[in-house]
Write a structure and sequence with these properties.
CATH superfamily: Rhodanese-like domain
Radius of gyration: 13 Å
Protein name: Rhodanese domain-containing protein
Pfam family, one: Rhodanese
Number of domains: 1
Largest sheet: 5 strands, parallel
Organism: Astatotilapia calliptera (Eastern happy)
Order of helices and strands: EHEHEHHEHEH
CATH architecture: 3-Layer(aba) Sandwich
Number of helices: 6
Structural class: alpha/beta
Length: 119
């Protein structure tokens, strides 16, 4: 069963991981200005235009820059998101191209999260 599209994660699936799973690496690819207005708890801001460079960094450099351990290529819960889903999908596709086999896009993105969370 070949899946040519971007792998996605639903609000319910993500909600079950946020704050509970030690494996979750949630990357917010929006601009710093957008993130300043609100973000999903525990997310790391890596703007879309810097995602490829970040994922190509050596692990020490990544840790210094973002304050977290760089995800392994087989990281089980690597999730990208943006405001409405498009940039998150682009980042997820880029991650797949770089070998991050389990990368997923939260297609509902921050717009859905903020509505459901009442923020």
């Amino acid at each position: 069963m070949a899946n040519t599209g971007t792998k996605e994660i639903s609000y319910e699936e993500l909600k079950a991981l946020v704050g509970k799973s030690p494996n979750l690496i949630l990357i917010d690819v929006r601009s710093e200005e957008e993130v300043a207005k609100g973000h999903i708890p525990g997310s790391i801001n890596i703007p879309l235009n810097t995602v490829e460079g970040a994922l190509k960094m050596n692990p020490d450099e990544f840790k210094v820059r973002y304050g977290v351990t760089k995800p392994l290529l087989d990281a089980p819960e690597l999730v990208f998101h943006c405001q409405i889903g498009k940039r998150g999908a682009m980042a997820t596709t880029k991650a797949h191209q770089l070998g991050y086999v389990n990368a997923r896009n939260y297609a509902g993105a921050y717009s859905e999260w903020s509505k459901k969370e009442g923020k």
